[in-house]
Design brief:
The protein has 735 residues and is α/β, with parallel strands linked by helices. The protein has 24 helices and 24 strands. It is globular and about 85 Å long.
Amino acid sequence: MAPAGAERIDLTGVYDDLAALGFSYGPTFQGMRAVWRRDDEVFAQIALPQGAAPGAYGVHPALLDSALGAMDFLAGGPATFTETTIPFAWHGVSLYRAGAAALRVRVRRAPGDNAAELLIADDQGAPVARIASLVTRPVTADHLGGPRPLYRIEWNPPAAVPSASLPAGCAVLGADGLGTDGLGLGLPVFPDLASLLAADRPADVVLLSCPPDDGDGDLPAAVRAATLRTLDAVRAWLAEPRCAAQRLVVVTRRAVATGPGESPDLTQAPLWGLVRAAQAENPGRLLLVDVDDTDASRRALAAAVACGEPESAVRAGEVRVPRLRRASATGAAPGWNPNGTVLITGGLGLLGGLLARHLVTEHGVGHLLLVGRRGMRARGAAQLCAELTDLGAVVTVTACDAADRDALARLLGRIPAEHPLTAVVHAAGLMDGGVLDTLTPRQIDSVMRPKVDAAWHLHELTAGLGLAAFVTYSSIGGLVLAAGQANYAAANVFLDALAAHRRARGLPATSLAWGPWQGTEDTVDLDRLRRAGIVEFTAAEGLALFDAAMDTGDAVLVPVKLEVGALRGRSEPPALLRELIAGHARPQAIGPTDHLTAATSLEDRLASLSRRERERAVLDLVRGHTAAVLGHAGAGDVLATTGFTDLGIDSLAALELRNRLGPATGLRLPATVVFDHPDPVRLARHLLAELFPDEDVTATRPEVRPAVRSAIEDMDVDELVRSAFARDDRTGEHA
């Protein structure tokens, strides 16, 4: 029975939330059955699982642990935690009886900071124990020795690789034909999309060949050219209605490093970031496959396509897929020379400034060269310099565009010999995003200059200086959640590839594909990320992870805080994260007609409804998914006739809404469907027309409730008009 006046708390996913904090509970310790909260009190029902006995314990450890866990809900529950707490001090502990297999627990605040009183009874209400005061204290992963949210990318064979041949309708798009002509695969090769579409028989699967660059040595220019070329090809494919039922497999050549010592092709690598964004914006339409130069790998393309993974690589004929796994320390941290100079690009920004302070206070760095395009004119530059100087560092701030190779060379030439350059941290960057349909060459250039050009020039100009560390700040957006940021994703994947390229040449390099930090994203982006299962770092957490990353010896690391419950709740979590989400089933290969299942189910349900009920059901479907995209509680928070833009739907949210409605209805919807039908009512009409093309839905209007209709009919229109004119006269305005 619920306590009087108490509100029941939904426990769905509570143990997933605890796992995300580093506490993984086995089934015996997952004892919470129900929790209620009333003001500063929490009530809980706890039980051992079937088959577990209380034994000779006063209180079984699993029951006691769950009882203490009820304290978490005084502060909102594990999903709201920004830190982990553990018991610190116990006072007034009394045990009245032993042997209970189920408990009722009442928790209320006690005098003192972070203190609570626990009254514990059995399931019949008989007293079992009392804790007069239990004080908890926050701890970090360092205190606990627990896992940090720091990951590395590992490439391993998938759970099952089918033995398959490429579909009979398979074709190659791209003049070079992937070199398959000499393998006897018999694949038709089309130099462009127009010739492919003109073919007698449409291809079910099309391999888009991305040939390596054979340019003149200007690497940043080659990166842009390859990115724009692939952007145009992918965009044309997605925009062509005749390709809607086909899959495009983007095939790169050595774009990724699948193991130590591999050096990726730096012009091909950014294409993975670009295509990941296209995949996120257009689920189920594209696959990514990387191959080496062996005939065995080209023959294994069929297995890579058939394995059901959105991205894979083939090495010497073996298919491998990427997964995030926890990184561990190896003692490879660089020694920060107090007499040397550390150069930080973006050193006057939020993350660069935080790192500069950290290097001085925690690592004894005595000489800093902070580089930004505005120099001392940057906001907060003078304050940062003064603070670092007070800490004992010698600070030089320079206005320099690191993407300008000559300017950067002059800057490096001015570093005094008595304080030589010993480390580089490239933290500069710029975001200028847009969905794939709208991305322009100017946006590609504006984002790549501070990331790609600057990093490459830093690499070339410092390669012979014997640096102890060369660190680039990349982003998780290059790996997952890249929708709306194809240019940014491409630029960040270049940084990751550059780190692997340097390591393969015996040079120091670490690329950090950061999750979000507090204060670096706008509110909308953070809400979207949290709903997707990614939580931002505090400054202290991020800096601790910087140190941990330097101690691993890996070229590319992914510091990211994951909320496992939210990730598991997604219809299709990113493949890269699957091994981190316990209990998530491995997906099957996606077929071009899989969407028809949803269509059949929805149409069956709608067919049994009256026309008015059908209209209402589809409108509620649209409003419900709109609410989910905006982070609202439910469909009731979305007004049916308010425009999507007025509701807060931007281009990226419109794509997310399209991607939700597609599987829900089984319809293949264009990327512009939300803006073509710009409010929930008109979008619902469009969906109905697509689902039931023989019915006339043009007359559909939002239902007016009887009480509202009656109020409208009772209005005195003349009085309303007179009042409106009187109001305008009082304000000096006239209708």
